[in-house]
Write a structure and sequence with these properties.
heterodimer; A: 488 residues; alpha/beta; 4-stranded parallel β-sheet; 15 helices; 31% helix; B: 48 residues; mainly beta; two-stranded antiparallel sheet; 25% strand
């Protein structure tokens, strides 16, 4: 079974329904299938055969989705990559993936052509639409073979390739979506690019369930609100930085979001202040879902559901209220466990497994409460060990963001002769407060944190370095420390 | 007998094979010498 069958089912059930729109143009499911057919023909013409890797370097667009489906339909491996990367980084990824064909937007054309004569570069625009589609026939691929490959975000090192087989993606669709009912009016605003597992699954699940997909160019509160409002969108997935941008925008008008049934978020820690503000101002009909997923585990492994959000929001006890900071409980079919480094410790590496297959180390540190809610405290590699005490940055970062005048913060460890490592905080202040009062910050933090967790040093920074999905690039922050420290 | 419609899923109890119907037909559907039953749908809340 080919993952591109997700499209052929929706085409068979509702060919005239709108599959994708970008705010200007609309394409029906039948038209999308034509685009895919034309792209399949082009890829085949350029010698792509089953098993080849086809790299996609494109901003999110209807055409990109067609190319992605075409590559998988042909039996090749579609490999969407981050279009913000620089030439040496792209060259590294292409070497790792062995891709022979790159489909790219015109603005990346020159960059891609400079990567070597062996690489075939196809412009995004060269694909569909074409004339009437022949019967959609997709390459017969063994279920276990890869359909899509994406690189991990590389926040902790070199990006690693992760392969998704046809069967793994189909299983995800079976468990999270159903083919469309007649007259379905669901619409999903897809803001996350396909090179992230959340963007990929959002696109595939939307196609399989016959939803209209509204793509979004550059993200802003105004663009997003327009997309939801004009498209009467029912579903959306945002990363925390996007939701923060929305609720912090003075012009944000939540009354335009009444159609939104589900707002899912994930891919990074959600500051409590942001989700609380969102729950206060969004229409009551919007259900929030926090989805914790691992690229390596093929998607979502735990979820904090709309009712969990409401209960935690209105909770009477500290324990229940705290769950708003959790990533919820194991999703159906998934299991969670904590592997502590020291026996008896509550916090340890989070391990997950799906369908009773082997356990996967997440690289995240966390703990489970009595009811099985999972709390993440940071990446294992970001853990700071100060004088034998384990310190997890997320708690300190959250406390810093609640301090007066601070809008954002990230915490890393710095080598220290006496303690092994000490805590250093990088903080972003409000524009009208260009300095930090270290004493005042320390006093505020001491009321919330054990003294050993209070940073030894605070550094003012204009903005935190983040990757395209808003994850803080901690290696970059650590390198700032060592560079400065080496100065005489 | 229930018609075989597009988008329906079936699973064979003997070999575990999955079937996703991409083209409608009269059926019946058989695998390993017996009739196929519709697969259980365990729907997750949408996270997309």
């Amino acid at each position: 079974m080919n993952i591109a069958s997700a499209l052929s089912i929706a085409v068979a059930l509702q060919p005239e329904a709108i599959a994708i729109e970008d705010g200007k143009e609309q394409w029906s499911y039948a038209q999308l299938a034509w685009m895919v057919d034309a792209d399949i023909a082009l890829l085949a013409e350029h010698g792509v055969v089953p098993g080849d890797v086809v790299t996609l370097m494109q901003v999110p667009s209807p055409a990109q989705i067609a190319w992605l489906l075409a590559a998988t339909a042909l039996g090749a491996v579609a490999n969407p990559i981050n279009y913000r990367l620089k030439a040496p980084e792209i060259a590294g990824l292409l070497t790792a993936s062995g891709a022979s064909v790159v489909v790219c937007d015109s603005r990346y054309d020159q960059l891609c052509r400079g990567l070597g004569p062996q690489l075939t570069v196809l412009p995004t625009e060269s694909g569909g639409p074409a004339g009437e589609a022949a019967e959609l026939t997709y390459a017969e691929r063994s279920d276990e073979l890869p359909a899509v490959m994406i690189f991990t975000s590389g926040t902790t090192g070199v990006p690693k390739p992760v392969y998704f087989s046809h069967v793994a993606l189909l299983e995800y669709l079976y468990s999270s979506a159903t083919p469309p009912e007649i007259g379905s009016t669901e619409c999903s605003v897809v803001c996350v690019p396909c090179y992230h597992v959340a963007g990929l699954t959002a696109v595939l699940a939307s196609l399989y369930s016959g939803r209209r997909i509204r793509t979004l160019g550059a993200f802003s509160c105004a663009e997003w609100t327009n997309a939801v409002s004009d498209g009467a969108a029912t579903h959306c997935f945002l990363v925390p930085t996007m939701l923060k941008e929305v609720v912090d925008d003075p012009a944000f008008d939540p009354s335009r979001l009444v159609s939104l049934q589900t707002l899912a978020y994930g891919a990074g820690p959600m500051p409590r202040s942001v989700i609380v503000k969102a729950m206060e101002c969004f229409p009551p009909s919007t259900g929030f879902v926090n989805a914790y997923g691992l690229t390596e585990a093929g998607g979502v492994v735990s979820m904090l559901l709309p009712d969990d959000h409401r209960e935690a929001f209105a909770g009477q006890t500290h324990e229940v209220r705290a769950r708003l900071n959790s990533v919820g409980r194991a999703a159906p079919g998934a299991e969670l466990r904590i592997a502590p480094q020291v026996a008896g410790e509550r916090v340890g590496q989070v391990e997950v497994r799906r369908d009773a297959l082997e356990w996967i180390e997440s690289g995240d540190l966390g703990y489970l409460d009595e009811e099985g809610y999972l709390f993440l405290v940071g990446r294992a590699v970001d853990r700071i060990v100060r004088g034998g005490e384990n310190i997890d940055p997320v708690e300190i970062e959250e406390a810093l963001r609640e301090c007066e005048g601070i809008v954002d913060a990230a915490v890393v460890g710095r080598q220290d002769e006496r303690w092994g490592e000490v805590v250093v905080a990088f903080v972003v202040t409000k524009p009208d407060q260009p300095t930090i009062d270290t004493d005042q910050l320390e006093t505020q933090l001491r009321s919330k944190l054990s003294s050993y967790k209070v940073p030894e040093e605070f550094r003012l920074i204009e903005t935190l370095p983040r990757n395209g999905l808003g994850k803080v690039l901690k290696p970059e922050l650590r390198s700032k420390l060592s560079v400065v420290d080496q100065q005489p | 007998m229930e018609p075989i419609t597009v988008g329906k899923r079936y699973q064979c109890e003997l070999c575990g094979g999955h079937l996703l119907c991409t083209r409608a037909g009269d059926g019946p559907l058989e695998c390993c010498g017996q009739l196929l039953k519709p697969a259980d749908t365990k729907k997750l809340p949408s996270a997309d």
